[in-house]
What we know:
Blueprint: H1 13-27, E1 35-42, E2 45-52, H2 56-70, E3 87-90, E4 95-99, E5 109-113, H3 125-135, E6 140-146, E7 158-163, H4 177-180, E8 184-186, E9 189-191, E10 199-203, H5 212-229, H6 236-241, E11 248-252, E12 256-261, E13 266-267, E14 270-271, H7 274-278, E15 280-283, H8 286-295, H9 297-304
Parallel strand pairs: 2-15
Antiparallel strand pairs: 1-2, 3-4, 4-5, 5-7, 6-7, 6-11, 8-9, 10-12, 11-12, 13-14
Helix pairs in contact: 3-5
Amino acid sequence: MDRENLLLKPGTLWTKLVERSDRAHQCGALLSIPTEFEFVEQDGVRFMVRILANLARKDEAKQAQDRLTSAGDRSFNPFLPYDEDLFVTDISDTHVCILNKFNVVDRHLLVITRAFEAQESLLTLADFVAMWACLAEFDGLVFYNAGKTAGASQPHKHLQIVSLPLIPSEPHQIPIAPLLSSAVFQGEIATIPGLPFVHAFTKLEPLWAGSPFQAAEATLACYHRLLKAISFPKTSAENELGIQPCPYNLLATREWMLLILRSQESFGSISVNSLGFAGTLLVRDREQMQVLKACGPMELLRQVAVPQSCA
Length: 311
């Protein structure tokens, strides 16, 4: 990928994001889902648990998508073409930036590939160029749900970005931040003692945001080191196709990257995606909230990941 392939004009993304969000709300293209929330503390983390107040619109859209696919239209893809009312900006000749139609968090961006790539695909240099082009514009949390078991709701490859801090009134950018400071490094890769599931953690350099291409090359190397550190299984056929052999969640900021292996998509009826491992979980109702409290949010994450004892 050459520098000429980067189409995002520096200093414009946040303004475009705000303007497009306002217009998309006004025309009805953006269907934000209202929530209430509570804090649930466990193992030194003050988890924020959102309770979804109204899922009717999202459920209706999901049912419509299921009807299309069950009717034999396996090619149905809301990202190809994407809704022009949700379009924010071009990033590169391989990626564009759109709004998350059913957002729970304000200013929630999806960084999608122009051409179809599977959500089970390994991340590429072009993906990381797009990521860093966005992180150069504002301080955000990037996450990737690598496959349905990892919480992905769409099969078309997409990274997601939400602005930091996740909870403006809290002292930390993300709820699990207090644990990250205890990282135990062996070379460039670390584990976090407070996380009871298979994971790998590494530091990134915030100054990389000034050069998305160099940052992407360095981050791609870090990504492969994280995969190796968690004994990510590989076969030559999978490597050639660029398809991951097992699901995982990836979280990244300008300063660090964390990868978690997944074993299942949900705990009972409570679905978990990458944001759960950042310390923010979603439940549909008070009944699910009681299940979460009875289990404990960290134990819930251990159940949907791969417990350390199974490594």
